[in-house]
């Protein structure tokens, strides 16, 4: 493979956004408490790092002189039961705020019947064939062209969600950082034979209630393949997929974004062509480097525990904007789960604080984490080296993607295989 040159930051993107100004922290510090769960929080936090609730603005200095804030009565805390903690909120009423009322979080999309026709912004029409997946990030359909501009028998994947849901963030990602022409330029620049960034061929609104994205056929999610009874991946298949996903992450990171939700539900394999490995699901994509300037690490500045709780990074747990190391940490958890079938916190996903504490514990003791997961089985050297290198990254540090890929390429070479060969996995259409 040819040497990998530097890809200009922001190439092919729209006008840069300005980084969000850092919240000012008053001195001396004012004690604050979450109105939802009663936990103490830092003055500059906008979200509670324990329960995820939005915090009211800190009291003005003249108010604190008249009356010191008293902690609210402790309430029983009930973390989100769903693996996607962002889809649930603890009950409770926030104190009055001078800010505008918060817009209600949209509910889940109601499935549309088969044969429904949707028209995108380019006036092309798409017919829903069947519902493939239904989850916290929307509905995925098999679709066909109904406008005569595409071959009738060609299959497409159509993602549908409520108009103001996270799919709006995903649409912005594709318009800004993943245009087909930008992806092709990258492949030529880096001499990458295959790059699993979805090709978004259309988007639009339907009935003023739904937003949708249309992709070339993505195939099946890796999670659905595992659910067929496979449960675990062989090292060869897992290493092939990891190298391909590292290619994808390097691309999106160099285009100012991080994925924010690496999971088997967002990795797609095509049964008709197992050389295709696609990283989809950009609902939680975050622009970590707008205009080439890395955002500051500020815990509590975003909704904590956002994404799939089992695999999200510690940064996401703590309400800091995910960075490049966050995606690589999540990818490491995924690889461990695919090879072993479980993680030390897999049975406690309804206790988000416990999950976070365990990830914090094992981040400093990777060897202990691996022994716990592999038990009497031998631990792959590539996986141990990967986790140790990723866990040691600083928040703003740029990873050495090529070195990480080489960790898995070497054992693949011993197996006389390449990451770009058909993935060594048996699956049905």
UniProtKB/TrEMBL annotation:
Gene Ontology terms, MF aspect: kinase activity
Region (Disordered): 1-23, 48-117
Cited Pfam families: DUF7577 (PF24463), Pkinase (PF00069)
Keyword Metal-binding attributed: no
Key word Amino-acid biosynthesis present: no
Superkingdom of the organism of origin: Eukaryota
Keywords: Kinase, Transferase
Sequence ranges of Low complexity compositional bias: 73-99
UniProt xrefs under Gene3D superfamilies: Transferase(Phosphotransferase) domain 1
UniProt-recorded name of the protein: Inactive serine/threonine-protein kinase VRK3
Species lineage: Eukaryota, Metazoa, Chordata, Craniata, Vertebrata
């Amino acid at each position: 493979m040819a040497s990998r040159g530097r890809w200009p930051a922001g190439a092919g993107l729209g006008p840069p956004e300005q980084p969000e100004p850092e919240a000012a922290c008053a001195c001396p510090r004012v004690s604050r408490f979450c109105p939802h769960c009663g936990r103490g929080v830092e003055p500059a936090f906008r979200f509670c790092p324990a329960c995820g609730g939005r915090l009211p603005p800190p009291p003005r200095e003249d108010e604190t002189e008249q009356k010191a804030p008293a902690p609210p009565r402790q309430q029983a805390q009930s973390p989100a039961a769903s693996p996607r903690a962002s889809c649930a909120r603890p009950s409770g009423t926030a104190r009055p705020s001078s800010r505008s009322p918060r817009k209600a979080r949209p509910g889940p999309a109601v499935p549309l019947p088969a044969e429904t026709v949707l028209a995108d912004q380019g006036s092309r029409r798409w017919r829903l064939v069947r519902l493939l997946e239904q989850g916290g990030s929307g509905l995925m359909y098999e679709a066909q062209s109904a406008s005569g501009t595409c071959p009738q028998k060609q299959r497409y994947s159509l993602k549908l969600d409520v108009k103001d849901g996270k799919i709006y963030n995903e649409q912005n990602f594709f318009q800004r950082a993943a245009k087909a022409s930008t992806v092709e330029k990258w492949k030529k620049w880096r001499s990458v034979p295959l790059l699993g960034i979805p090709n978004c061929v259309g988007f639009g609104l339907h009935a003023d209630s739904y937003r949708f994205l249309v992709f070339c056929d993505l195939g099946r999610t890796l999670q659905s393949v595992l659910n067929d009874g496979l449960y675990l991946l062989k090292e060869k298949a897992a290493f092939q997929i990891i190298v391909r996903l590292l290619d994808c992450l390097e691309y999106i990171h160099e285009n100012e974004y991080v994925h924010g939700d690496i999971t088997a539900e967002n990795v797609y394999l095509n049964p008709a062509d197992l050389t295709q490995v696609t990283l989809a699901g950009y609902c939680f994509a975050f622009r970590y480097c707008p205009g080439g300037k890395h955002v500051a690490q500020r815990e509590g500045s975003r909704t904590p525990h956002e994404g799939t709780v089992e695999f999200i990074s510690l940064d996401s747990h703590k309400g800091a904007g995910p960075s490049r190391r966050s995606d690589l940490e999540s990818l490491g958890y995924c690889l461990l789960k695919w090879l072993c079938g479980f993680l030390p916190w897999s049975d406690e996903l309804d206790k988000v604080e416990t999950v976070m504490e365990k990830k914090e514990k094992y981040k400093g003791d990777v060897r202990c984490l691996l022994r716990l997961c592999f038990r009497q089985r031998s631990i792959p050297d590539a996986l141990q080296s990967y986790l140790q290198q990723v866990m040691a990254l600083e928040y703003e540090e740029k990873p050495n993607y090529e070195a990480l890929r080489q960790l898995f390429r070497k054992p693949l070479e011993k197996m006389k295989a390449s990451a770009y060969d058909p993935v060594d996995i048996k699956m049905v259409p």
